[in-house]
Amino acid sequence: MKTFLAIDAGGSTLRATWVSSDGNFIGKEVLEKNANFLSAGEKEIEKILLLLKQKVPVIDTLALSMAGIGGKPEFEKVKGLCDAIFPKSVCRIMPDVDGAYYANFGKEPGVLVICGTGSIVLGKDEEGKKMRSGGWGYLLGDEGSGFWLVKELFRRYLAYYEFLEERKACFSVFEELFPGNPRDAFAFFYQPEMRKRTASFAYRFLALGDPFVQELHQNGLKLLADQVLSVLARTDMKNGKICLMGGLFSDGRVEEFFRHYLRKSLSESKQEKIPIITGVKNIADAIAWKMVAEEAET
Length: 298
Hints:
CATH superfamily of the largest domain: ATPase, nucleotide binding domain
Largest sheet: 5 strands, mixed
Number of strands: 10
Oligomer: single chain
Shape: globular
Helix content: 40-55%
Strand content: 15-25%
Order of helices and strands: EEEHHEHEHEEEHHHHHHEHHEH
Structural class: alpha/beta
C-alpha cells in the first residue's frame, strides 16, 4: 500500500491531504500562513515541508501545487527542497495554476478560468498541448479579479479626490476604509503582503449593487472571457469543459454574467460540445484522490 501527500500552497493558506492507495483517508493539515515561494522565501518553505513530513514520515508520492514557482529558478529551488526532504518519494512539483488544472481535469482537455485575488486562463487540448492567457499579475493584468476591481475603482476615486471626476456613491467605501488622505491607502496597492486583503474589498463594492461598480467589473470580466476565447482558438479544442474557479465566481451575479457573456461569444458548435462547469472547492483533496485513481489504473 502506498501513501500520497497532496499540497496546495498559496499566498495565505496551505492545505495538505494524505491518502493511501487503497482509497483510505489518512489526514489533513491547514496552515494559515504565506506559502507563496516568492514572498515567503526558501527558508520558510523548507520549515513548512519539514513540518508536514513529521505528520506522516513515509510518503511514496508527493504532489505539490505552489504559488510563486512559475519561473524556472524558483521551480528548481522548490524541487531541490522536496528531493532533499522527501528523498525516497516521487515528487511532482507544479505551479499553482497547473495544480488547479490537474485537480479539476486530471489529464483531460479543458480550459480553467481562475478569478479571485488575481485571474488567469489555462487550457489543454486533446493532445496535451498547453496554452495560457492572462496571469500577468496585479501590475500588468489580472482583469476582472478582486484586486483589479478595487484598483480600478481606487483610480477613479483618486480622480474624484483631485477634482478630475464626479463623485460616485461607491467612493464612500474608500472614505470609510481610508479616512483622511488617500495616500494612506498606498500600502494596500504596493505591498505584496497586502494584496489579498485589498482584493477582499471587492466583495464590499459588489454587495452595494451599484450600477457603476457592476459596469466597471463587467468590462473586466469581458476581457477575461476574451482570454478564454483566445485559448480555445489557439488550442483548437473540439471537446472539453470550461471550469470556473476563484472567489469572485462565488458571487452569483458575477458567475451568471460571465457564463452568459462567454456562452453567447462561443460558436454554436462549441456551445454544444464545451459545457461550463464549477470547479472543485479543495485542490489538495482533489489532487490526492486523482493520484489514487491513477494508481488504481496502473
